[in-house]
Write a structure and sequence with these properties.
66% helix
Length: 178
């Protein structure tokens, strides 16, 4: 029991940070935090930029899909109208074969002569969806990390060096531990 007390006193007496009078690990936590934050920026900023591009592409594809679905609905309605309305069917056949009923005449309008003859299937053609705005790249210093992989690599290497320096500065020297 007395022997255990003696070991405890020796362990308490040998504290290098208390014997030197100054805290040698004061740089460890800040340098580790700076290094971890820099590495996090090098990883998260490119991922966020890729997410932004994927979101814009998803919106563009959704607009295309909506336009195609609307085109399908209009075409289906047109086909139902052709099947149910004999007058429309007759007019389409006359237009396709470029025939005119007896007693009727084609009305030629000024400026319409240069226009090519339209197919009846183009009557249901919808305009394409509006173009989405192009993504503007960021101009800040952290935005350059997402565009240049070499810069990102060197920045992460520097952050690892800062973290290593913080760990080395946190270790007490052998002369202080005596």
């Amino acid at each position: 029991m007395a022997n255990d007390h003696f070991i405890f006193e020796q362990a308490v007496a040998v504290r290098p940070w208390a014997s030197s009078g100054r805290d040698t690990s004061a740089w460890t936590i800040p340098l580790l935090c700076i290094g971890i934050a820099t590495i996090a920026c090098c990883i998260l900023i490119p991922a966020a930029e890729e997410n932004r591009h994927l979101t814009a592409e998803t919106r563009h594809l959704q607009a295309d899909l909506d336009q195609i679905n609307h085109q399908i609905a209009v075409n289906d309605q047109f086909l139902k109208s052709v099947a149910d309305d004999p007058t429309l069917l007759e007019r389409l056949a006359q237009r396709q074969m470029k025939m005119v009923r007896s007693g009727e005449a084609v009305l030629n309008l000024k400026g319409e002569q240069s226009r090519p003859q339209l197919s009846p299937f183009l009557l249901t053609n919808l305009p394409p969806p509006a173009l989405a705005m192009a993504l503007q790249p960021g101009t800040g210093p952290l935005d350059k990390l997402s565009s240049d992989p070499r810069l990102r690599l060197f920045t992460m290497g520097g952050a690892l060096m800062i973290m290593a320096a913080g760990l080395v500065l946190g270790i007490s020297s052998p002369s202080e531990s005596r």
